[in-house]
Specification:
This protein is of the alpha/beta class. The protein contains 11 helices and 10 strands.
Length: 305
């Protein structure tokens, strides 16, 4: 390991999402004030971040949530699109809940389903969502146009590049041509940049992730029911050689953004032979799962040489 002083161990037993990772790093000691200052330099508007404390299964954790301005929210449109106009009203509450699922608006997988269906690729819906569809080049321009440190920019770009490759493979596109809501959505850009900013601020060099727990079953997306893990997550785990541990949960525990963080940034899948814990952080997931803590634990450790 290059820097034994600054090794981060990410415990993937409850899965992983972008917002859970940001929350765990803030809980670990990354400065919220510094994060806010850095995010303010992104050439993107229409979002605010909320950092709060919550209790998940008795564990006191940090919760990180990206809140979008009204014009960027289009839940009702999505509901009508997914369920038909007559069903939109009754499903809105349920969809909202789903939304904040893992925080990450997840489902890019489902690509093309907005927000948690995170993708919305649909040809017929481009007119309504074109502002949400960004290419990897568009996201790269946003990151390059910010005042993030070189290290943070490099990590954020690495995560988006991994995500673009996984989405492209799932859709039969190339990383340059794939257009996706998940990677292009403001909340996803904020989650990824926040992870990069916090890792840089904490001086973390090595990132150890042994495996990721994932649920089973299906998830509703724009394209119908998708199996869990969704295609983008499968592709990221294959590309990043990430070991999966099946969990007895009929839901998605690993989001595309979470898997992309691991695939792009992990430096080892093996824990140090001995290590001393310097700090611990818990990041809250948004979903209420049975039998799983619903928090992402990160340890900042000093590996004994």
């Amino acid at each position: 390991m290059s820097n034994h002083q600054h090794t981060l161990i990410i415990d993937g037993t409850s899965g992983i999402s972008g917002d859970m990772t940001v929350a765990a790093l803030l809980d670990l000691g990354a400065s919220e004030e510094h994060l806010r200052e850095q995010l303010a330099t992104l050439p993107v508007d229409g979002f605010t971040i909320a950092v709060t404390r919550v209790s998940k299964h008795g564990i006191n954790a940090c919760d990180f949530d990206v809140q979008l301005a009204e014009e960027l929210e289009n839940h009702d449109h999505d509901m009508a699109w997914l369920y038909g106009n007559e069903a939109a009203a009754e499903h809105t509450h349920e969809h909202e809940h789903h939304h904040h699922d893992h925080g990450e608006h997840e489902h890019e997988h489902c690509h093309e389903h907005d927000h948690e269906g995170h993708g919305h690729g649909h040809e017929g819906h481009h007119h309504a969502h074109h502002h949400h569809h960004r290419s990897l080049a568009d996201v790269t321009a946003i990151i390059d146009g910010s005042q993030l440190s070189d290290g943070a920019k490099r990590r954020a770009l690495a995560i988006f590049t991994a995500l673009a490759a996984a989405e492209a493979k799932a859709h039969g596109k190339t990383p340059e041509t794939v257009m996706f809501h998940e990677v292009g959505a403001v909340d996803s850009i904020v989650d990824v940049c926040s992870v990069a900013i916090c890792l840089d601020a904490l001086g973390i060099e090595d990132i150890v992730v042994e495996s990721l727990s994932e649920g089973h079953g299906t998830i509703r997306c724009a394209h119908g029911l998708m199996p869990i893990p969704v295609p983008a997550v499968v592709n990221l785990c294959q590309a990043g050689n990430i070991a999966l541990t099946p969990a007895p949960v009929a839901s998605e525990l690993v989001t595309p953004t979470g898997a992309a963080i691991v695939a792009a940034l992990r430096t080892s899948e093996h824990l140090p032979a001995r290590y001393r814990i310097e700090a611990v952080g818990y990041g809250a997931g948004k979903r209420p799962y049975e039998g799983c803590s619903g928090t992402l634990r990160c340890l900042l450790v000093h590996a004994d040489a």
